[in-house]
Amino acid sequence: MKSLRDFVKDTKVFIVGHRGSSGTAPENTFASFSEALKNSSAMVEADIHFSKDNKIVTVHDFSNFDEEYSNGKPSDFLFEDIQKIDAGNWFNPKFKGERIPLFEDVIDLICGKAYLNIEIKEMDLENHISSFNEILSVIKAKNYENHFMISSFNYKILNLIKNFGYDIPTAAIQIPHLKMSISEIAQYTGCEGFICDINDVNEEIVHESCNNNLYLAVYNIETIEHLQKALDFGIKAIATDYPEKIKQMLDSLNITLALP
Q1: Where in the chain does DSSP place strands (E)?
Q2: The pLDDT of residue 248
Q3: Phi, psi of 198 (to 5 degrees)
Q4: Taking every pair of C-alpha atoms in the chain, what is the biggest distance, in angstroms?
Q5: Which of 4, 9, 35, 94 has its CA nearest to residue 240?
Q6: Which pLDDT score is estimated for 124?
Q7: Contacts of 141 (CB under 8 A, 6+ apart)
Q8: Are strands 41-50 and 115-119 parallel, antiparallel or unpaired?
Q9: CB of 60 within 8 A of CB of 28?
């Protein structure tokens, strides 16, 4: 499996499964990640948090779960309690019994099959560098250092990753209405990629990304119109909640998907 940087450089187009195949299975679960892998996702995006006892779990938030948990956050609960949460039944009864997985187990699942995009939403990296290093320790223990990236709306996090000297591919996610050019974002964050909503993509974004040597990724790809727009602009990374649907559309266009 080549490094993520080499894969992106050598690849024309690939699918990113957003929280797995979150349109067809409960997000951030083994069921969702497995469905994404089955349908040619070269990368999966996952959200991670720390439990109260410092276990790294893969979950976006608890809003979909039983009332006992829905008003809390992962850091409020011990991992043994998080393991009691049914992470699938809210989505569809056929997924009843799905559990919130440990981050390290997700890496085991996708190892050798897909790259990993860790989206970090909220982390006081400056004051919690030890927590960030714990995440990296898990990745290193799994020999996955060259096969993951970090993305965020929080540009300060990306800036700190750069300034602390970590050699990690990062991507900045577009913040709506932010008055910063892509050039300014790239300079501040040191990012290698830029991610935006398909509905916001235009020639200016594509041109500025290219001028700053950033690969471009888009999300909310659900229709053939969305997909065709992305392809017309030469976008590499197609992030979707529906990998199977997008794969079928690409097949119908005789476009061969790149895989690790």
Answers
A1: 14-18, 41-50, 56-58, 115-119, 148-152, 170-173, 193-197, 215-219, 237-240
A2: 97
A3: -55, -30
A4: 50
A5: 35
A6: 62
A7: 104
A8: parallel
A9: yes
pTM of the full predicted structure?
Answer: 0.95
Token pair 């024309």: residue = 12
In DSSP notation, 5-64 reads HHHHHH-S-EEEEETTTTTTS-TTSHHHHHHHHHTTEEEEEEEEEE-TTS-EEE-S-STT
Q: Select from 72, 88, 76, 110 the least CA-distant residue to 25.
A: 88
Cα distance from N-terminal residue to C-terminal residue, the chain: 6
Q: pLDDT (tens digit, 9 = 90+) per residue, 62-119?
A: 988 887 888 888 989 999 999 999 999 999 999 999 999 999 999 999 999 999 999 9
Q: 97: Cβ–Cβ under 8 A, 6 or more apart, which residues?
A: 86, 88, 89
Q: Output the six-digit token pair for 53.
A: 């006892």
CA dihedral 186, 188, 190, 191 (to 10 degrees): -50
How many residues are present in the chain? Answer: 260
Left, alpha or beta for 37 (phi > 0: left; psi -120 to 50: alpha)?
alpha
Q: What is the CA radius of gyration of the chain?
A: 18
- Write the pLDDT tens digit of every residue in 147-158: 999 999 989 989
In the chain the domains, ranked by start, together with CATH numbers, are: 4-252 (3.20.20.190)
Share of the chain above pLDDT 70, in %: 97
Question: Is 16:238 a contact under the CB 8 Å cutoff?
Answer: yes
Q: What is the pLDDT of residue 123?
A: 64
Q: CB–CB of 78/51 below 8 Å?
A: yes
